[in-house]
Design goal:
Its EC number is 1.-.-.-. By secondary structure, the chain is mainly alpha-helical. It has a single domain, classed as Ferritin. The chain has a two-stranded antiparallel ribbon. A hairpin with a 5-residue loop joins strand 1 and strand 2. Helix 8 runs antiparallel to helix 9, helix 10 packs antiparallel against helix 11 and helix 11 packs antiparallel against helix 13. The longest helix has 27 residues. The protein is globular and about 70 Å long. The two termini are 41 Å apart.
Length: 376
C-alpha cells in the first residue's frame, strides 16, 4: 500500500519533487551563502618551502587548515554544511510534551526493557539520581548538588556528551546496512537511508555543539571509545536480525532523551544551573539551527530537545512499517513540531495517508511550475 502510493511518479520526478517539498516543509529561513572568495580570504596557506619546523623537525604551519580542534578543523570558518534538518519556530519548541509509548508486543517489551536497563546502568555508573527535592528543604544550591538532588554544570555536560556520542550510532548503522542491502539487491531503498543518515548527523551536531563548551579528558574519551565500539557492533547485528525492534529501541531511547532535556530546561528556568543562565549560544548552534544572534544556552537546549522529539516520533513510526517493503513517509517532508511534539507516532495507516498527501503536494507543485513556465 505504502509503496504504490509513491511510485506513481518516475524516479527522476520523485527525486526533484522531494527536494521541492522538503524545501517547502522546512521552516528554515534563507541562510547567507558563503562565497568562495570569502572562504579563501580566511585561510592563509603557508607554502611548503617556508613552513616552520618544530623541535622534532616535523613541518608545521600557521594555516587554519592545520589547527585541529574538537569541533572543527577550521575553527575560524563558519557555515552550515549539513544534511536536511528541521529548524524550529519559537512556538514549535514549546510544543514538545513528554510522552511514552506503551510496549505491547514481545519485541516492543524487549526494546523498552533494554532501554530502561541501559539508562539504569548509566545512571548508576555516573552517580545520577534525580532525587525529588523535599518541599520543606531549605538548602542552598551547593548543598542540593552535594546531596545529589541536582547536577552541576560539569555533571550535565558529562552526561550530555556521553549520551550524544552514543546516540549518533543507530542512524549510521541503519543507513549503512540499508545502503549495502540496496546495492546487494539492486533496488531502491524507498527513502529510508537518507532519514537514517540525517538522524546520525543531527546527533553528531549535538555533540559538536556541547564539545564547544568543554574538552573531555583522555579517560572520558576512552570511555566513549569503549562504549561506542560495543554498542555499534551490538546494534549492527541486532539490526540485521530485526530492524523493527531496533527502531522501536531508538524510539524509546529518544523518549528518555526528551525526559533528560526537559529536566535540564526546567532546572535552567528555575535558576539551578546559573553557569548557563546568561551564556551565549555557541556559534555552531546559531549556524545549525538558524538561531538569532543573541540566543542563549537555553535556546540551544530547547532546539536539541525538539530534535530528540523528532527522532522519537520518526523511529516509533518507522517501527510500525514493513521495513522491507514500505516507503519511508518522512523521505520528502516531516510534520511540524505541533504534531511530533504531541503525538508519539504515526500508525501504519496514518503513514500511508501522509505519503499520499506528499504525493499530491508534489503533483500540485509540478503543475504550478509548469504553469509558471508557460505564462508570458
Amino acid at each position: 500500500m505504502l509503496r504504490t502510493s509513491i511510485t506513481r511518479l518516475p524516479v527522476r520526478q520523485v527525486a526533484i519533487g522531494a527536494l521541492r517539498v522538503r524545501a517547502i516543509a522546512s521552516s528554515a529561513t534563507p541562510h547567507p551563502a558563503t562565497t568562495i572568495q570569502n572562504t579563501i580570504s580566511e585561510v592563509n596557506v603557508v607554502p611548503h618551502h617556508i613552513q616552520e619546523r618544530d623541535r622534532r623537525g616535523i613541518a608545521t604551519s600557521s594555516s587554519p587548515l592545520t589547527r585541529v580542534d574538537a569541533v572543527s578543523t577550521v575553527p575560524t570558518m563558519q557555515g552550515d554544511w549539513v544534511l536536511f534538518h528541521p529548524v524550529y519556530t519559537r512556538e514549535e519548541i514549546k510544543a514538545v510534551e513528554v510522552l511514552h509509548r506503551e510496549a505491547k508486543t514481545v519485541s516492543d517489551k524487549l526494546a523498552y526493557g533494554l532501554v530502561k536497563f541501559a539508562r539504569w546502568g548509566y545512571d548508576f555508573l555516573s552517580g545520577y539520581k534525580h532525587k525529588p527535592i523535599p518541599a520543606d528543604a531549605k538548602m542552598t544550591l551547593q548543598q542540593l548538588r552535594k546531596e545529589g538532588y541536582l547536577l552541576d554544570e560539569q555533571g550535565w555536560l558529562n552526561r550530555i556528551l556521553f549520551l550524544e556520542s552514543i546516540a549518533g550510532v543507530p542512524g549510521m548503522v541503519a543507513a549503512t546496512l540499508r545502503h549495502l542491502q540496496s546495492l546487494r539487491l539492486m533496488r531502491r531503498d524507498s527513502g529510508w537511508i537518507h532519514t537514517c543518515l540525517e538522524e546520525a548527523e543531527n546527533e553528531r551536531m549535538h555533540l559538536m555543539t556541547f564539545m564547544s563548551l568543554r574538552q573531555p579528558s583522555l579517560f572520558f574519551r576512552a570511555m566513549i571509545l569503549g562504549a561506542q565500539g560495543v554498542f555499534y557492533n551490538l546494534f549492527f547485528f541486532a539490526y540485521m536480525i530485526s530492524p523493527k525492534t531496533c527502531h522501536r529501541f531508538v524510539g524509546h531511547l529518544e523518549e528518555e532523551a526528551v525526559v533528560t532535556y526537559t529536566r535540564c530546561i526546567q532546572e535552567m528556568e528555575a535558576g539551578r544551573i546559573p553557569e548557563w543562565s546568561d551564556m551565549p549560544a555557541p556559534q555552531i548552534a546559531i549556524d545549525y539551527w538558524r538561531l538569532p544572534s543573541d540566543s542563549k544556552m537555553l535556546d540551544v537546549i530547547y532546539a536539541v530537545r525538539s530534535d530528540e522529539t523528532t527522532h522519537r516520533f520518526v523511529n516509533h513510526s518507522l517501527a510500525n512499517l514493513n521495513t522491507n517493503a514500505d516507503v519511508n513517509p518522512f523521505a520528502m517532508r516531516e510534520p511540524d513540531m505541533h504534531v511530533k511534539g504531541k503525538q508519539i507516532e504515526f500508525k501504519r495507516d496514518e503513514s500511508e495517508r501522509y505519503v499520499q498527501e506528499s504525493h499530491d503536494i508534489m503533483v500540485q507543485r509540478r503543475k504550478e511550475v509548469k504553469e509558471e513556465k508557460l505564462s508570458p
